[in-house]
Structure to design on (344 residues):
């Protein structure tokens, strides 16, 4: 197992790079923009292929590395479904599994610090974002924070994990790197309250100044999406209205790039062919299934929000598949327009 805790000193942020082994797929949690070169170097050093970049929540104190990592590695950007970020490739909900090759994480919705805060459990450890910090908890006084929800997230979700579970937070300002659930239960001063009301009172009385970067970081982090407009202008996209007219046509193939869980949760466009995004390179290479398919049918790639499919169109055209297009706005736009959906 490869597990690296990486530190960004200006905002005191911890990021986590995880992979099963050298040469495998990798995932990064809470990357910071200023450190993207370092992450890329480390990925190269360890011969890793970054496939997912995940933010535990919309950060107010630093600019996320999600967009830059997607632009440089074509990885999938991931956040919770409540996020206000314009476009992330994949949105998670409570009870989901966050997966890469050989690594599974249980996804827990832990609102309170923000309304889009998530924690991820991987075996003996939990990534708590800013919900539970070492000897602290994330502030609850902006970004739809709510001390009541945070109490519930901490006491009824995180503290129910086994006491020996390692706690890896998104921040530390004192130099601590890791704790455990049991240690935080006993020693975290914010958790020594006797009731939810006492916790709410404690949190509401903190009177903290706003983070220095907040006015820059929050707007920047809300605009991490890949612009799909350039692709639309080139004629490489299909709008949902156009797409609906193509569904029945035998010379068109809708190619679904989403993972199985996303397809099961949201359904698919009738007649779609599944080709998960992580297999795209092989699928469009000589001898690949998509490559074969485009001999007789024009491919229309689609995904959840149009980000993976926009990358796929460029990749397919780079490989000489000149008929490749994608569904602008993805399944999200399709559903809003009441496009036909088949259960998976
Ligand atoms: Fe935060």
């Amino acid at each position: 197992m490869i597990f690296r805790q990486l530190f960004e000193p200006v905002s005191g942020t911890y990021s986590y790079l995880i992979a099963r082994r050298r040469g495998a797929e990798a995932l990064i949690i809470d990357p910071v923009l200023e450190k993207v070169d370092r992450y890329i170097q480390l990925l190269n050093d360890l011969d890793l292929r970054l496939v997912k970049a995940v933010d535990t929540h919309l950060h107010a104190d630093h600019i996320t590395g999600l967009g830059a990592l997607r632009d440089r590695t074509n990885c999938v950007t991931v956040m919770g479904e409540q996020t206000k970020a314009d476009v992330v490739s994949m949105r998670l909900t409570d009870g989901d599994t966050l997966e890469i090759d050989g690594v599974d994480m249980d996804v827990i919705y832990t609102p309170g610090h923000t309304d889009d805060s998530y924690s991820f459990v991987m075996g003996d450890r939990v990534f708590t974002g800013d919900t539970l910090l070492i000897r602290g908890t994330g502030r609850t006084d902006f970004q739809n924070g709510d001390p009541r929800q945070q109490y519930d997230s901490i006491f009824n979700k995180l503290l129910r994990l086994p006491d020996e579970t390692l706690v890896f937070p998104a921040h530390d300002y004192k130099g601590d790197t890791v704790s455990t659930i049991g240690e935080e239960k006993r020693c975290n001063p914010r958790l020594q309250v006797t009731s939810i009301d006492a916790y709410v009172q404690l949190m509401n009385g903190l009177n903290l100044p706003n983070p220095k970067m907040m006015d820059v970081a929050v707007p920047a982090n809300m605009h991490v999406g890949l612009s799909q407009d350039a692709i639309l202008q080139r004629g490489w996209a299909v709008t949902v209205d156009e797409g609906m007219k193509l569904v029945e046509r035998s010379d068109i193939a809708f190619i679904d790039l989403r993972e199985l869980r996303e397809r099961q949760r949201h359904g698919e466009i009738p007649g779609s062919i599944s080709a998960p995004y992580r297999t795209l390179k092989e699928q469009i290479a000589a001898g690949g299934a998509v490559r074969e398919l485009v001999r007789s049918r024009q491919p229309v790639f689609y995904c959840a929000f149009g980000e993976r499919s926009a990358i796929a169109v460029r990749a397919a055209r780079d490989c000489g598949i000149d008929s490749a297009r994608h569904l602008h706005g993805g399944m999200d736009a399709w559903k809003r327009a009441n496009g036909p959906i088949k259960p998976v």
Notes: The first strand starts at residue 2 and ends at 8. The chain has a mean pLDDT of 96.
